[in-house]
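Quick one, tokens below. Sequence please?
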């Protein structure tokens, strides 16, 4: 199994809020099996100006890093690609996939709720997150593979967007069927009652996935 140090090369990036210099992971090995998360800022295109967009992006990264730290996911060892209105995150191979399910979702919900408490409606940050696990392949331009493709099909599925738009939640989380089955089969950190099945249709992808709700009780 690859170690976390194999995920990265060193590139200096902006500092943490406390002034500590961050060393950003930049590349992954040519191929590895890992847990992936894709994040999207809801209604990003409706923000009226660049300042508002930059503020939302900053808040997204701050909240993701904070939730990872609480969950003990090594944010600064994860590979990250910025997507303009979101991000792709690939965890080191030795990070349990279960950590990205209930533990991370609850913690991200909590930090979003706290930061949104005093925010105006226009500044409220709402996120959609998709989680999957699979083989990732790297070339000179970034990462690819069926796992990455499937992850973003889940994130962009109309049924997922509608489920979040119909509610008032700050976070929507969708989990691939394979990852959900693996986590429940091994008795991982997952509460099955907090999930309901969702049929996903996006481009050529037709698949079953699982939608998470912090309170469960889907009925």
């Amino acid at each position: 199994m690859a170690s976390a140090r194999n995920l990265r090369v060193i590139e200096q990036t902006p500092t943490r809020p406390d002034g500590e210099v961050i060393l950003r992971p930049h590349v992954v090995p040519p191929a590895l099996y890992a847990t992936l998360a894709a994040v999207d800022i809801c209604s990003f295109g409706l923000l009226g100006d660049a300042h508002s967009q930059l503020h939302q992006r900053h808040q997204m990264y701050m909240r993701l890093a904070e939730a990872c730290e609480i969950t003990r996911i090594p944010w600064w060892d994860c590979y990250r690609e910025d997507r303009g209105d979101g991000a792709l995150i690939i965890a080191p191979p030795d990070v349990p996939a279960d950590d990205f399910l209930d533990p991370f979702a609850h913690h991200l919900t909590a930090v979003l709720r706290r930061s949104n408490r005093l925010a105006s409606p226009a500044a409220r940050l709402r996120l959609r997150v998709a989680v999957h696990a699979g083989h990732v392949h790297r070339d000179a331009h970034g990462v690819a593979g069926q796992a990455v493709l499937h992850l973003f099909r889940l994130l962009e599925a109309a049924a997922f967007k509608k489920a979040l738009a119909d509610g008032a939640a700050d976070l929507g989380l969708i989990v691939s069927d394979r990852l959900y089955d693996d986590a429940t089969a091994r008795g991982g950190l997952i509460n099955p009652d907090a999930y309901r099945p969702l049929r996903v249709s996006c481009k050529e992808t037709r698949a079953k996935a699982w939608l998470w709700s912090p309170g469960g009780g889907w009925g």
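The first strand starts at residue 12 and ends at 15. The mean pLDDT is 82.
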